Amino acid sequence: MPLRSDDTSTKEYEFITTAPVSPEEQIALDNVAEIESLLLPLEPLALYRLCKRLPDNSKILEIGSYQGGSTVAIGHAIAGSNKSLYCLDPWQGYLNQDDFAFIDHSKIKDDFVVFNNFLRNTSFIGENLRVLRGRSSSFADLLAGKEFDLIFIDGAHDYPSVRVDIIIAFSAIKAGGIICGHDYHSQGHGVVRAVNELIRDVPSIQTKFVIDQTSIWFCILESPGYELIKAGISDLCNAGKFTEALQKSKSAYAEYQTEELAKFISSLESALHDIR
Predict the structure, then answer these.
(1) Where are the beta strands (DSSP E) in the chain?
(2) Tens digit of pLDDT for each residue in 78-124?
(3) How many C-beta neighbours within 10 Å does residue 33 have?
(4) Which domain holds residue 244?
(5) Cβ atoms 111, 100 nearer than 8 A
(6) CATH number of the domain where residue 162 is located
(7) How far apart are CA 24 and CA 28, in angstroms?
(8) Which pTM value belongs to this model?
(9) How many CB atoms lie within 10 A of CB 112?
(10) Which is it for strands 217-221 and 173-181: parallel, antiparallel or unpaired?
């Protein structure tokens, strides 16, 4: 089943790459093209247009920046505005990541060089850019509750890493904010699995699709807190902590009172009864 929404009000996002490229956009695309990255041709344009549409004082988080290809696209979109861009990446260990298996290893063996390439490529963004160096899990508590308007996930692409990044995004996005990410395609097995579990197959997230002619998955989170709680319940179940999961589900139901949680409570109670 494709990751897709039929909500006509969001079609402008799904087909955001179809309009002709403006001279301003072409400058941004030309600058991105000079940077070695894993982006497909229309993906920088999609990111540029998504961020360009954000209102004043918006906050953007990019998880996974590498040498700044996507960062430069976003940077051009927010140039001259009061929008803020936060980039989070460990900037190390690329030789050990499957995502970079097809890149000339001589270009990524020196983490210092990669990080300095990022700094040089993004220097034009100036004070609008904040750099967070480290693993996303190390910044989870710092990012929680920061109410970002858009979060772009392009970190490590194995399933556990993508799942962690999406859950962090749930905790950090504002209500009605956009979460999107890279590499939703046949080769991105970890990405597809995590996105399907936490977004595609979740009825409470209604706006979701892959942006046309890209591998960028996209969703709008109307109730991030609700999705975060459900992800926590799922983690407890996966860890075999069914009693704690039931308690958390009942607490969540007291606040949200959804049929989804009611069914989940019933199934957990049945499971616990069978165990006893």
Answers:
(1) 59-63, 84-89, 129-133, 148-153, 173-181, 208-210, 217-221
(2) 999 999 999 999 998 777 776 666 666 666 678 888 999 999 999 99
(3) 14
(4) 224-276
(5) no
(6) 3.40.50.150
(7) 7
(8) 0.93
(9) 9
(10) antiparallel
